[in-house]
Design a protein that fits this description.
about 0% strand, elongated
Length: about 110
């Protein structure tokens, strides 16, 4: 599923790609562009959080330990990377744009 999401993100038009300079500085456009990526990263976090939580709980002793494999590591990394990207993106967005109620709701 992570690969499918990554492949889909590559099909976005250039004006929504993160590696491209935004063609406009209009607030509505910057918010729409950021919100798209926040939603994508949130979906990745939602998909993989059970692996992250299961691993954390097994370290506390509340659940039996489970064998860790390369796929679990890759899923955990995708979850952590998505969370990190979200935090950085929201921080950058809020530094350069006005905080409205809608922006604040998405930023939470």
């Amino acid at each position: 599923m992570n690969q499918t999401l990554d492949d889909w993100s590559q099909t976005l038009p250039p004006y929504f790609q993160l590696d491209q300079e935004p063609p406009s500085q209009e607030a509505w456009y910057l918010f729409a562009r950021s919100r798209l990526w926040w939603r994508l990263w949130n979906l990745k976090i939602t998909l993989f959080r059970q692996i992250l939580l299961r691993r954390a709980m097994s370290k506390t002793g509340h659940v039996p330990p489970f064998p860790v494999n390369a796929v679990d590591d890759k899923c955990r990394d995708a979850c952590v990377d998505a969370a990190h990207s979200t935090v950085l993106s929201i921080h950058d967005f809020l530094e350069h744009n006005e905080l409205t109620r809608l922006v604040g709701w998405y930023a939470m």
